[in-house]
Amino acid sequence: MSADELQKVFKTLSDPTRVRILALLAREELAVQELMEVLGMAQSRVSRHLGILREAGLLRDRRDGTFVFYRFREPEDPAWRDAWALVERNLREDRAARRDGLAVAQVIEARAARSRSFFDAVGPEWDALRKVWGDDMLRARALGRLVPAGLRVADVGTGTGVLALELAEAGLEVIAVDHSPAMLNAAREKIAERGVSGIELREGKASALPLADGEVDAAFAHMVLQYVASPGEALHEMARVVKPGGRVVVIDFARHDREWMREEFGVQWLGFPPDEIRDSLEAAGLEEIRIEQQASAARGADLPETFLASATRPQENR
Fold first, then answer.
1. Beta pairing class for 173-178 and 152-156
2. Can you give the pTM of this predicted structure?
3. Which of 140-144, 242-246, 270-274 has the lowest mean pLDDT?
4. Residue 67 pLDDT class (50, 70, 90 cuts)
5. Which has the closest alpha carbon to 223: 275, 285, 278, 160?
6. What domains can you pick out in the chain, each with its CATH number?
7. Which long-range contacts (CB under 8 A, 24 or more apart) does 41-45 make?
8. Strand-pair category, 30-31 with 59-64
9. Which are the contacts of 270, defined by CB distance < 8 A and separation ≥ 6?
10. Which residue, among 251, 307, 316, 253, has the nearest Cα to 287 in the 3D structure?
11. Can you list the alpha helix ranges (DSSP code H) found in the chain?
């Protein structure tokens, strides 16, 4: 590395605000508005620092409708890596960094609270609302990837228990998880009405599943990632709770531009590109990744394509 390039490294990382931003984005993917809230700074100032960091190759960005989200990019150059490692070590004892960590945790909790409030308000009406998606066929295909009967599976974000009932009726033991008490009550009523056994309801977030490591043979997330505050954390959690050799199966919308779905369906994310899902599944330590994408089955509805992704937790001691 030349002297000029080395000077650029030191100059970029010598600014306390830029270091704070990098530390935050190493923890969580954040939008400009969220960084403004955590840092207590104007948009112009935050955007200026983001531009410098992006030009240095330390950020990656992702557009989601009208929002742009940023994430720390691990530097490839050894000088950048060494400099950032030194900064990280110093941040461990930095009070401002700890305060920033608490503030960003509140931002992520606010994301989750918006989703929880939506589902608490909708409650049992969700079944009628979600019929517009017309995804019964895709759900059935996903179910086929979990045979044979007798497996113990997690239905993450169970909602009113539609998928949990299908899984239980197929002979699977189900732990159905949701963060909305209203949705769990609706699921409880539906399960009692159908007289189906083999379903245990648990309240909890997708990013902190109320399951032990390796507790289930497989984990489902059906149209859930678009609602969770941190989809990557949710996939890590799903990978954690399945046994070695177990499967993680995800159904959701592919990347789209239907902004109206934020208001009508309360989604936080406008779908996900297949490459992003693949990267997240790999980052969660999963393998044998398969992703299929297909047009929406709903007739006459302006809905995006859906995808079906599955992956396997590696066997131990291979």
1. parallel
2. 0.72
3. 140-144
4. confident
5. 160
6. 3-93 (1.10.10.10), 122-312 (3.40.50.150)
7. 41/17, 45/17
8. unpaired
9. 64, 65, 226, 253, 255, 256, 257, 258, 259, 261, 262
10. 316
11. 3-13, 16-27, 32-39, 43-55, 78-91, 95-122, 126-130, 136-144, 162-169, 181-194, 231-241, 260-265, 274-283
Burial class (CB in 10 A: 0-12, 13-18, 19+), 220: buried
Amino acid at 165: L
Residue pointed to by tokens 């394509």: 305
Residue 76, classed as helix, strand or coil, is coil
Length, in residues, of the chain: 318
SS3 253: strand
Residue whose entry in the numeric block shows the structure tokens 């369906």: 265
Q: Which residue has 């994430």 as its token pair?
A: 71
**3-state DSSP of 135-200:** CHHHHHHHHHCCCCCCCEEEEECCCCCHHHHHHHHCCCEEEEEECCHHHHHHHHHHHHHHCCCCEE
